[in-house]
């Protein structure tokens, strides 16, 4: 199955293509950039670069995969909108996975030698004393849905079982769990969702009739309401 996958949810933008070329050879091309902003400007050019390197046209694809959140409002919106547009233009099926699920898959692989059967808690910094949080017992086995959790409440949410916290919020989560009497190790603080992992997941994901973003919080920028300035008379 030929798959185009991309992520713009958190602090990076990445694009991956995997499958077979027209000649039948295996293809796997990838690009990754750390970016807190500017995903919208970089995503489509990066996609074109990776597709050109793979020597695939959109008509050659079987799946377009995207992370649907949680993450920054703009990053999530950019990725989901691009996936919808590319799927509509090409007629290719679109699939989605959460950013935390993709990160969990990576963490289970990277920590295989040191995990010692401990659950992995993916914690992405959501700023303002909050984290996007989800616990995984196995790579595909989440305990509950992704949540937006205040650091003050992390100890109660996670409990006292020994866990490994990963992601940009890992250090804060491990400290909060420890302060609450739990046992938490912080690892992989620079972990970001990786389009290569999403591309590997894509063949097993069910196509979405309507791809929905998972924001978990409202955008920081809001339109003016009653305090809007009156317009000048013509």
Gist?
It is built from six helices and ten strands; from the N terminus they run E-E-E-H-E-H-E-H-E-E-E-H-E-H-E-H. It is of the alpha/beta class.
- Tally of individual domains: 2
Instruction: Give the distance, in angstroms, between the N- and C-terminal Cα atoms.
Output: 60 Å
CATH class of the largest domain, named Alpha Beta
**Can you count the helices?**
6
CATH-defined architecture of the largest domain:
2-Layer Sandwich
* Mean of pLDDT: 92
What portion of residues is helical? Answer: 25-40%
Low-confidence stretches: none
Q: Indicate the multimeric state.
A: single chain
Largest sheet report: 5 strands, mixed
Strand content: 25-35%
Q: Rg to the nearest angstrom?
A: 19 Å
User: Which structural category fits the helices and strands?
Assistant: alpha/beta
- For the secondary structure, the number of strands is 10
Element string (H = helix, E = strand): EEEHEHEHEEEHEHEH
Q: Give the CATH topology of the largest domain.
A: Nucleotidyltransferase, domain 5
For the biggest β-sheet, the strand order reads 3-2-1-4-5
Coarse shape: globular
CATH homologous superfamily placement of the largest domain? ATPase, nucleotide binding domain
């Amino acid at each position: 199955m030929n798959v185009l996958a991309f992520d713009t949810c958190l602090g990076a933008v990445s694009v991956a293509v995997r499958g077979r070329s027209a000649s039948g050879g295996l293809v796997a091309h990838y690009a990754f950039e750390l970016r807190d902003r500017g995903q919208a400007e970089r995503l489509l050019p990066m996609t074109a670069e990776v597709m050109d390197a793979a020597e695939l046209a959109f008509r050659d694809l079987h799946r377009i995969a995207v992370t649907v959140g949680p993450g920054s409002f703009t990053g999530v919106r950019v990725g989901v909108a691009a996936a919808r547009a590319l799927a509509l233009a090409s007629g290719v099926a679109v699939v989605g996975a959460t950013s935390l699920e993709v990160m969990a898959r990576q963490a289970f692989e990277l920590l295989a030698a040191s995990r010692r059967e401990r659950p992995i808690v993916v914690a992405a910094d959501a700023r303002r004393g909050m984290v996007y949080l989800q616990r995984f017992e196995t790579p595909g086995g989440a305990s509950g849905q992704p949540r937006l959790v205040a650091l003050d409440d992390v100890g109660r949410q996670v409990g006292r079982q020994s866990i490994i916290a990963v992601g940009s919020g890992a250090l804060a989560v491990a400290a909060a769990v420890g302060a609450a009497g739990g046992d938490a190790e912080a690892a992989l603080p620079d972990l970001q969702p990786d389009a290569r992992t999403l591309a590997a997941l894509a063949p097993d994901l069910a196509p979405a009739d309507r791809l929905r973003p998972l924001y978990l919080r409202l955008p920081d920028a809001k339109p003016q309401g009653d305090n809007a300035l009156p317009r000048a008379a013509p």
